[in-house]
Design brief:
Strand 3 and strand 4 form a beta hairpin. The chain contains 2 helices and 5 strands; from the N terminus they run αβββββα. Helices cover about 25% and strands about 30% of the residues. The chain has one domain. The protein is an alpha+beta fold and about 100 residues long.
Length: about 100
Amino acid sequence: MKQQICPIVWLQDWYYSQCDGDWEHNENILITTIDNPGWRCAITLEGTMMEDIVFTNESVDKTETDWYRCWVENNVFIGFGGPYNLLNLIEVFKDWVKRHDVR
């Protein structure tokens, strides 16, 4: 059985794999809070292997505090979610990258 990698550890690895002496000089991964309350995650795709890959929008609404939405706009992966959904946002991004076998 293959061990699951923590989404935060996976994101750190993905970030580092994109560092090419140029890409990392911008704010390419931003994780911030929103006033709903909740989270916003934005990951710049330009300059990565994901910039030309089609993303299917994802939306989950379970409760007022358990929800998330993810899409790609202007070469940026964007995710918004409830106060306990930060890992969901990262997992959606991770699953998308892994489906396309790009690192």
